[in-house]
Amino acid sequence: MTKHLSFWLGVFAAALLTVPIAASIMGAAEQELRRIAVTVFVAVAALVVVLVIALFFRDWILRRLFGRAEATLDDVSASLIAGVSAATAGDRAAATQHAQEVVQRGMGWYAWTGFYRWVIATAVALLLAFGAFMGTVLLFEQNRKLGEQTEVLRVQTERLAEQTGFMAAQTELMQAQTERLREQTEAAAMQNEILTLNLVNEIRDLMLATVETRTLGEWLEVLGRQGTSDPLASYASDDATCSLYFNFQHVLHTPPSAATLGAVATLAQGESMGPRVRDALALLTLDRNGGVALGALLVLDMIGTPKTDNEVTLRNLFVEERVELQSDAHVLRIEASYLGNFACPDCDVYLSGSYYLQLYDGHLNGRHNIFDGRDPNKFMFNGLTLRDRERPQTPTALNAPLVTGPFFDASKQVWLVRLSGDEMSVCDSFQRIALRSPILQATAPALD
Predict the structure, then answer these.
(1) What is the reported pTM?
(2) Which of 273, 319, 289, 266 is nearest to 205 (CA)?
(3) Which of 308, 359, 303 is nearest to 329 (CA)?
């Protein structure tokens, strides 16, 4: 085997290179290329098998071709030398025999050497062919992969375009939903306003059901007050005589009943309807009916949420049963009312054209009133003021005593209090007070 070492090294190297190349081709090629690669590989493998078989039967092949097995260069040289020696010795037969051996051995050596060269050349050619085929396969595979990647990129681009379209549609949908939510919010706000308005009407009707409404004359008759038909105060001088009376036709309203106010207060403190009820009550403080407005104010005061955003005007009230506001946050304007038992100790109250029996100290001022207070000097009023007869006052240009009618307690003296700088006569002042105070009426001055 030593003399065939170079051949087997070449075959071994070719096999080492062929196997990974074939494995690479089998791993890389697919579909048609895989089938082509398999076919080529089978053909090459078959050729290699044929060459190996030929190597095993080389002696038989050489004998069939040349009549001898394989020969080496030493055998050829030995036969040549033996033939020359026989020819020199004159042995013609031996020389001929040796010449024939030289030719056979030379042909066998040459044929075998050529066969080795052909096998090696074939292996190298196969290796090169495999290398070229591998490059072609890899090129086609690379192109296929690039094509697949291009197709994937195209599909991804299409999907991105679709996703972009979907996102645009979603954006439009979100905008539409936002617009609908805004419309729904507006509709809900409108519904809340409608519900609040309905609630205002319902609470107003509930309060009106227990608000009593009568003329001042009827109320005084119900109270059994005496001397209501007589003048409240009169003035007489050398020039004129005049008087002030109650206007019995003026209509007055009581606050709602305590039961009604308690029921509304319970609703206002509830978790579900409480905020709407409180909003409705705040709106009802603006009602033209003084009983409803005072009722709403009493409920807000009762639940501890007084109305503080603006002044509350109460008109045409008749209060004889005790009504008291506890919060000091109220700012009230009371007009054309009869207040026999009304208290708001810490409120800011402005009275206009009203009768007021003051039971508690407070922040009071106003004009054109009848004020029956414990200490009227603390308050800024013009109109009629009652003072104790036991504490006589000194008449001044702005402070004139009047003849007191039987409606007032005999211990009281009615005085006319005018504003600073007022130069009107007493009878003219009566006319002005009656003009600004709907609960009063004045007689025209009688001239002597």
Answers:
(1) 0.59
(2) 289
(3) 308
